[in-house]
Design a protein that fits this description.
Layout (H helix, E strand, L loop, with lengths): L1 H6 L3 H4 L5 E7 L6 E8 L6 H19 L2 E7 L5 E5 L1
Parallel strand pairs: 2-3
Antiparallel strand pairs: 1-2, 3-4
Length: 85
């Protein structure tokens, strides 16, 4: 995901990469939908950034891999976001 953010996304979205601390993706047995958890480090009350991270992750997975699933973006504060891709 960091390579994607650094290469082909708009400059504003590329700045997300420095806030991503980990990405975990799994596809449960018997399912065709992935489950992803993206951990980010933003300051307090950064809900817009968490939402944008979820949007960018969903776009990355669908455009690069063509798969489907759900992403949860989790930060140390109460900023969290969810999105289907």
């Amino acid at each position: 995901m960091r390579a994607y953010l650094a290469s082909i996304v708009p400059e504003g979205d590329a700045a997300i990469a420095i806030h991503v601390t980990s990405v975990r993706i799994r596809v449960p047995a018997g399912s065709a939908r992935g489950e992803a958890v993206v951990r980010v480090y933003y300051g307090v009350a950064e809900q817009e950034e968490a939402d944008r991270t979820a949007d960018v992750f969903a776009h990355w997975r669908s455009s690069v891999y063509g798969d489907h699933g759900r992403v949860d973006v989790l930060g140390p504060a109460k900023a969290t976001a969810e999105k289907d891709w």
